[in-house]
What we know:
By secondary structure, the protein is α+β, with helices and mostly antiparallel strands. A 6-stranded antiparallel beta sheet has the order 8-9-10-11-5-12, with helices on both faces. A 4-stranded mixed beta sheet has the order 1-7-6-2, with no helix packed on it. A hairpin with a 2-residue loop joins β9 and β10.
Amino acid sequence: MMEPESFEAAAKDEVWVQAMKEEIKMIEKNDTWELTERPKDKEVIGVKWIYKTKLNADGSIQKHKARLVAKGYSQLPGIDYTETFAPVARLDTIRALVAIAANKKWKIYQMDVKSAFLNGYIDEEIYVEQPQGFVAKGCEEKVLRLKKALYGLKQAPRAWYSRIDNYFMNRGFRRSLSEPTLYIKRQGNDTLIVSLYVDDLIYTGNNEKMIQYFKEDMMKTFEMSDLGLMHFFLGIEINQEKEGIFICQKKYTETLLKKFKMESCKTVTTPLVTGEKYKKEDGSEKVDGSIYRSLIGSLLYLTATRPDIMFAQVCYQDFMQSPSQVHYGAAKRILRYLQDSDWAGSADDMKSTSGYTFSLGSGIFSWASKKQATMAQSSAEAEYIAAAATSNQATLLRRILEDMGEKQEEPTTIYCDNKSTIAITKIPVQHNRTKHIDIKGVSPKLAEALAAREAIRLAWRFQWRQVVLECDCSTVLEKLSLAAPDLSISSLVLEDIRYLLYSL
């Protein structure tokens, strides 16, 4: 079903008329505003209707949603609002929570706060116009004075976060210092963990009675939708089984292939051509930049569950300003792949790409691939910069896992296949190709753990993960042969490597 672009179009369809009535009913039930005279010394902010069809994981219609939003772009800073920032959960944290639940065989549940932003209290004096289709008869000149936040206001996200944060803190939860949207409650040996993503909550723990009490209390305090077991979250499909918890974006991938007319394309086994380097100016014909940017942006969203395409997606981001036919064809190779740290990796600026993966239990839950800010003058420097970034992420993840009750008693080992990098980490020696390096703050424990590992083991563990971050499978197999000659790899194919990657 097409979503109407205006109130006039929506008013012709009873489905959307009912959706608007539901929105007004929720606003009035929440005591969000009051009708009053138009102020003479205050600007009145306009409002508009936004229409959205919400879908289930299988693509079927869940509901038609009409949202009344304020035209916040007309607000004046310091007068209509002050603080606006509200934290949002990291995907790394959400995947870590899923990994812990899978390890401990806990069930993960999900709830949604209806019209969450309407629950936030505001300090400023704000007036808005009456919404189209719902102007009070005989009071056409009057306006609405807000008691609580309305969607579209600059301060609405912060007002909602402050309200829900107070709820958790008043009920004995502890907020994570490293992730302000992660809340943990412990009673003896019982644990309840809640992760908040704006108006979506996922929660898990080891005591079903404690979980049930939390759900009932939330539903008494806010207008909630109980979604049961977590199965579809932020566009990610979650399948909770006895064998474990599995996440994917199958429906999104199918939609993406259809959007770019690639559902019947010839498949490939890797998202990148081995050894291929692309330049910003390659002499080929230019293509529509908006289509190219749409493809790259869509692929970025897919990296939430597909670390194996992250490196390729990052490579093609460099060409979004002026893409060519070659760039577009190369980016579409990732779609063909879906249908089934290097030194001087960029041919334009010679900057390397840092990448890392973190595993917990039987799979990885945190990953990244990002071009380095500076040009490394040696492979050792490129690897060192990557190791420093990895250690920073490790420190953050250790704190988050500690907050979830996973004690970090042993140092985190960072695997790297560059002996010089390991030596620099252990003893910051000054040589011609290392004396210029800004020795970034690597945790002593992490540095010690990194330096203590023997080279072959480091190479073996690291190179499996290089499949994800560099997509250069032939190079990986060649290095594996040199690093571990006794390892039989002649029969390994890409699917086997991917399986091993998630098993290590």
